[in-house]
């Protein structure tokens, strides 16, 4: 087993500051290879970040980010208060699916010998599960029981019967123009976005929006500042593109730029969810928005504004998008209908500065060409006929009622374990654990009871967050909310009273 000093000495020997390859990537690759080839064995405790940085003569922040990335990939495990360890089962040993007979020594091929992209290593460390029916308290779901499916079917059927034959051929990567016009009009009135239909490009949901943005704007090794904690989908998209993440903490006004390093000319963009930060729910203040726009203009950087659930505000008018304050063409605005209508509707959109429109369309033409046109046409009709605005108004009432029910149920049955406060927006709440207990342990135990309660620490990269559980309610009816709370209580009772 390699000792801490041997680890540092080996890596220090291989760090080359003259190659132009970021030290972050060299250190990450070096540690990964030492774990893969057995020079650092499972269960080894890695040096504390401050000591490791001192031995390697690099910044501690670099070591912390490398540790975090390898934790995300599944090579390391962080134990709060105890340090960072090599995982018992590293990703390359988990690639085999199902029980199979061991391969003979003459035919066995190690996964590290296969010619696969390094992006796979990042994806292999990330896990996303989509159960057939949303569980309490899974996030990212919608009230599909309230969606007007008969109306949607009627619109689809009508369009399918009358769709011109040329619509069955390849179509424009920009998307269906009447839909882009409907989106532009809606965003202008409801979100304060300043755009014309030509600036709107249709994509297959916000995840593809993040993917194509990463491909067009960044080279491998470029840097992006990102909220911490943050949306895991954005973090994954940027990591897969080989982008260096610079995490900045969230305070009561949103992302805190005072933590930003001296990065003039070195950071390509910053990713934010200003209207309702994920997962904290913080709304970025007007002064902080203006500060961020000024920073982007000064540093010739992009702002990626993810407006994922800003439609759902229950107290007053929704907060206008930051894009409407941008007069320098620095904001790339993205949204999705998957969080507003239903998840399997894989339609989202990007609102782009004029000089980026053709570049993004060209990239999409080589990725997926275009999103399903039948659904684009049907959604256009759904919006132009007024059904979309009506559905949004209805959902604000439904989600507000579901949130209040969840708060009441938690206060009635779980108040000895967690604190929860109603929010004026969004589709989830955070249950703050009392006595600063280990949220991950509660989450695992709750999952065994059939409840999804994700620890807030899951979304943290570097900056610690108070222990809590993310509780989604938008996809649950009253019975499911009540049942979920009782199962969560049973999990707490069993764990703490045995």
Number of DSSP helical runs: 15
Number of strand elements: 14
Name of the top-level CATH class of the largest domain: Alpha Beta
User: Which fold name is given in CATH as the topology of the largest domain?
Assistant: Aspartate Aminotransferase, domain 2
Query: What percentage of amino acids are in beta strands?
Result: 5-15%
Q: What distance lies between the first and last C-alpha atoms, to the nearest angstrom?
A: 38 Å
Number of domain modules? 3
- Cα shape: globular
Assembly status:
single chain
Overall description:
This protein folds into 3 domains: 4-92, Orthogonal Bundle (Arc Repressor Mutant, subunit A); 162-385, Aspartate Aminotransferase, domain 2; 390-496, Aspartate Aminotransferase, domain 1 (Alpha-Beta Complex), CATH 3.90.1150. It is 40% helix and 13% strand. The chain has 15 helices and 14 strands. The protein has an 8-stranded mixed β-sheet, sandwiched between helices. A 4-stranded antiparallel β-sheet has the order 11-12-14-13, covered by helices on one side. α6 packs across α12 (373-384). The longest helix has 27 residues, at 387-413. The chain is globular, with a radius of gyration of 24 Å. Residues 93-112 have low confidence and may be disordered.
